[in-house]
Design goal:
Blueprint: H1 4-27, H2 31-38, H3 48-56, H4 58-63, H5 72-77, E1 88-92, H6 94-97, H7 101-104, E2 110-114, H8 120-125, H9 127-130, E3 138-142, H10 145-149, H11 157-173, E4 177-181, H12 194-198, H13 202-219, E5 222-224, H14 227-230, H15 250-273
Parallel strand pairs: 1-2, 1-3, 3-4, 4-5
Helix pairs in contact: 11-13
Length: 274
């Protein structure tokens, strides 16, 4: 225990240290300012449109990467399928998201679970919630174009293929038939289409489609070849089937609907024989 004289000699030192510590704390920036100073900038891709789009989605990428919130309430409100119901889930990105399925498949129990801008890792995150838990007989997957474009970062074809395979294996484990749709061609016939076209090299699209076709053949899944029916003589998406070079017009969706229905019926028939 310190004597009264020792306490008196130590007190000024403690006061000085306290004052220095307080001054140091007051000189620190506020937490929001500190976060702003230390937050790394989003790397530029060299494509202004893509850079702007990625910046607009930072909150999604950090708070709800798979966007599970998008369909959570709709899934909860969905009744279980009846024993005779051929429920089909369409899983995909904006091409699926913008597809008004009731207009093209009237009266069919087909459920749209597309999300604008998504890549295969995001779809894999929500595969259980938006596919498995809905108990469909078949899932139709259209994905990969945004991976090629680097929407959630640079991705190799091998990484995309691994995500395809993971989703297919999950579906098979839950006795869900699998239809893999080819990646669609793109075009640059309009000014609005130029960046989307540049971000999606045709050689990567062709390579992914070849892998998908081979993978389906080896594993007993159905390959849905949209590409061959939508491509023109220059190897691009037919001009009248997409205004922006990427998303189908009504005419494009009509072609896709006919092909999808045939693939779904094939998958249903194959599932019944297993």
């Amino acid at each position: 225990m310190l004597s009264s004289e020792e306490n008196m000699s130590v007190a000024p030192i403690i006061r000085t240290l306290s004052q220095l510590l307080l001054a140091s704390l007051l000189s620190l920036p506020s937490l929001p300012a500190l976060a702003q100073q230390t937050a790394p900038a989003i790397p530029s891709t060299g494509f202004p449109g893509l850079d702007q789009y990625r910046a607009s989605r930072v909150a999604i990428y950090t708070d709800d990467f798979g966007q599970l919130a998008r369909y959570r309430e709709a899934n909860a409100a969905l009744a279980p399928p009846t024993p005779s119901e051929n429920r089909i889930v369409f899983l995909g990105d904006s091409i699926t998201d913008y597809w008004k399925l009731p207009d093209y498949f009237p009266g069919k129990p087909y459920i749209n679970r597309g999300v604008d801008g998504q890549t295969t890792p995001e779809m894999l995150v929500r595969f259980r919630q938006d596919v498995i838990d809905l108990h469909p007989k078949v899932v139709v997957m259209l994905a990969g174009t945004n991976d090629i474009a680097g929407v959630t970062g640079r991705t190799s074809n091998e990484d995309i293929e691994a995500n395809y395979a993971s989703m297919a294996e999950l579906a098979r484990a839950h006795h869900i038939g699998v239809v893999f749709a080819s990646v669609l061609p793109v075009h640059n016939y309009t000014h609005d289409a130029e960046e989307s076209f540049a971000l999606r090299p045709s050689d990567r699209i062709l390579a992914l489609n070849k892998w998908l076709k081979d993978y389906c053949a080896k594993n007993g899944f159905v390959y849905l070849d949209y590409f061959s029916s939508l491509v023109d003589e220059r190897g691009m998406l037919k001009r009248d089937l997409a205004d922006d070079g990427l998303h189908p017009t009504d005419a494009g969706y009509k072609i896709m609907a006919s092909l999808a229905e045939k693939a779904i019926q094939k998958a249903l028939a194959e599932n019944r024989t297993r």
